[in-house]
Amino acid sequence: MTSRDAAIIQAVDQFGQLTSGHIWHCYFDNTNKFSMQRVLQRLVTLKLLARVERRLVGGNGGGSGQYVYQLGAAGHDFLGKRGKYVPQHRTVKQHMLEIADAYSEFYTAELDGKIRILNFLTEPDSHMDIQGTKVRPDLFMEYELVGQGEGAVFG
User: How many angstroms from the chain centroid is the CA of residue 79?
Assistant: First the structure.
């Protein structure tokens, strides 16, 4: 297993579900899509990832026929998760994919040199108590504007 394989498995677990377009953008943007397809097929065959029931048509940067991936049984074991593996979702969860879309926009801004991502958290890790008030954002982003030395938080 490569470090990229491990990073993909961790990202799919953290977001819950990712499309092949999300994975392409974050891990394969400097290579061809056939390379990505081979890697994802291998991860599915090894049960590190599992495909959700159908392909999406269109989408952000992935063209038509994107698969949606979630953690597989071997991925569950690889990440040292407790308990017996049970597929997290049986259908595509659009809300999870929208959170990944938001992260992807920040990632693009980082690639473009506009920001530097300092930290990000997804649910439930993004839930926090601020001065006695429970805040439950879907995505928490801490970033710095490049060249301005200012930090910003998006929740």
Answer: 15
User: What six digits make up the tokens of 13?
Assistant: 């677990």
- Closest by CA to 5, choosing from 29, 38, 33, 31, is 38
Separation of first and last alpha carbons in the chain? 34
Q: How many other C-beta atoms can be found within 10 angstroms of the C-beta atom of residue 129?
A: 8
State pLDDT tens for residues 1-48: 899 999 999 999 999 999 999 999 999 977 788 899 999 999 999 999
Chain centroid to Cα 150, Å, comes to 26
Q: What structural domains and CATH numbers belong to the chain?
A: 3-93 (1.10.10.10)
Q: Identify the residue whose tokens are 């989408």.
A: 59
Backbone angles phi, psi at 98, to 5 degrees: -70, -35
Quote the tokens at residue 31.
Answer: 């290579």
Integer CA distances (angstroms), 24 to 8, 143, 149, in order: 10, 22, 30
pLDDT in tens, 37-94: 999 999 999 999 999 976 665 554 444 568 999 999 999 999 999 999 988 888 899 9
Residue 154: both structure tokens together: 């998006």
